[in-house]
Amino acid sequence: MPKSINKLLDLKTIKLSSRLKYLYILIFTFSILHFSCTSRPNIQGKGEAFMQGVWNEDSVAFSNKLTNYTQHHFKFTCDSVYIDFVTHSKVNFYEDSCYNNGVWKEYAKGVYAVKGDTLFVGATFTYANYKQKISGCYRIGRYDKNFLIKKRSADTLLLESLSDQREIKLTLKEKVTCIQKEL
Q: Where on the tree of life does the source sit, at the highest rank (predicted)?
């Protein structure tokens, strides 16, 4: 065989082997992406075991000296949180039809997470049936709040709001078992 044909065959072999190399790299890359990017199950998270339950704030410190204060009722189930607020106010911040003699209830529903010693709550204000509230008396929109978990035991949870440094002392009223639901 002449030298030129040998060179031509060598070039074709080199081109073919380099194309195969790129094909193998491409297949390898896609297989890694496929196995590393598996979708998460379409189920709610477990949340924190120590928080699962119904927690009440039975009293607010120095409430008799405060112009207004709010008592909290939390229900943590899996990674979801349901919050009832009972506000007592000596000052009318709302129109008269909303003031309700200085005592009213608000509700919020959302999710929570605990990172280290901090509780993060991301919720939306709702009606009493926990359907989203878009108008009406009191607060609407988002309830995003962070709390420092100052103390926790089997039946007591002491939180401090990171926005206003008010303490919320919660007492466990009912333990809840997390049964994860599909989203």
A: Bacteria
